[in-house]
Amino acid sequence: MKKVVVGLSGGVDSSTAAAILHHQGYEVIGLTLWLMKGKGQCCSEGMIDAAELCEQLGVPHQVVDIRDLFQTHIVDYLVTGYSAGITPLPCSQCNKTVKFGPMVQYAREELGCDRIATGHYARISYDEATGRYQLLRAVDRNKDQSYFLYDLSQDLLAATIFPLGELEKTDTRRIATEYGLKTADKPESQDLCLVESNGSMRAFLDKYLAPKTGDIVDVTGKILGQHDGVHHYTIGQRKGLGIAAAEPLYVIELDAENNKVVVGDRTKVTQPECTVGRVNWVSIAEPSTPIHAQVQIRYRSTATPVTVIPLENSRVRLVFDEPQFSITPGQAAVWYDGEKVLGGGIIEQFS
Ligand SMILES: Nc1ncnc2c1ncn2[C@@H]1O[C@H](COP(=O)(O)OP(=O)(O)OP(=O)(O)O)[C@@H](O)[C@H]1O
């Protein structure tokens, strides 16, 4: 029988992914990564739901404590990034370094199993012509999580199954109900796990970073107001600045070194290009000449036409057909050819 290790968070998506594979005849082993202390998904509540699901399916369930790894690669990464004036994206980093990497390693080394599955909404296909695994958007575009998965290596993609990639979310709920899964009616997680477990990103950061009062200035250096720490702001932010001005003002630079938040009008936060580092090429090998693609510079943004110019050291320059608003250092830029993820990386600081 084909064996698969299914990553279980205790939510309806991973539960249904496990149930589908179980009903397809796979020998399923449930695996929950213990990511952090506290209540909520990825913590003890999630583990109990995952254990109950495995009991219901009659499959084994294992828990691996990787709280130290999560602390180093996600919590410390976020705190260091925010204090340096960038807005790091934890999810793609978490998928590669905390979830898929350790899951595949544990499956191979401890369970003698070479396949893993998760409840992500994305698809993987193998291209015979190039010998590469391709990452594709989910059929349910509203749930598509390919943006967060661009950093997976070929080895990890080769080992992974996404049983929900061809389904609409409503199908997932229906299948969960048909199978009578205990998690069938469990509400969706609405936000980043750290935001859910701490109430807000501000509350999370306040646990690690002390308030540090500084000036909010315009591009000429004129003081317009005060802030309580650059880590509380993000590029393109308009609300919550506490400044009265004739025209709308946006955060255009976070100068952590001088503890200043710089604001300006919309034109100052709209750029024709940016550079991207730590690039991972997914569905195609790194090209030697510029390519045309469609890029997303944040999770919910619409893919927009771009020229991707390869640079040295796993970097690229993105030149947008239309200048883009609020390009945020630390967030991922992921470029597609239609539904296919070509590559992605982390937007670099450009001040
Ligand atoms: N702590 C964990 N241990 C093992 N696998 C996990 C864990 N957290 C998430 N995953 C896997 O990653 C997938 C996507 O996680 P995400 O945080 O986006 O949850 P989700 O879309 O709300 O899914 P779910 O409904 O399963 O919680 C999950 O479906 C699951 O397979």
CATH class of the largest domain: Alpha Beta
State the CATH superfamily name of the largest domain.
HUPs
**Over the alpha carbons, how many angstroms does the gyration radius reach?**
21 Å
Shape: globular
Counting DSSP E segments of at least 2 residues, the number of strands comes to 17
Provide the helix percentage.
25-40%
- Kindly identify the CATH topology of the largest domain: Rossmann fold
Average pLDDT for all residues: 94
Give the DSSP E fraction (strand runs of 2 or more residues): 25-35%
Gross CATH architecture of the largest domain: 3-Layer(aba) Sandwich
The structural domain count equals 3
Domain tRNA-specific 2-thiouridylase MnmA-like central: 203-265
Organism: Nostoc commune NIES-4072
Domain tRNA-specific 2-thiouridylase MnmA-like C-terminal: 273-347
Site (Interaction with tRNA): 120, 331
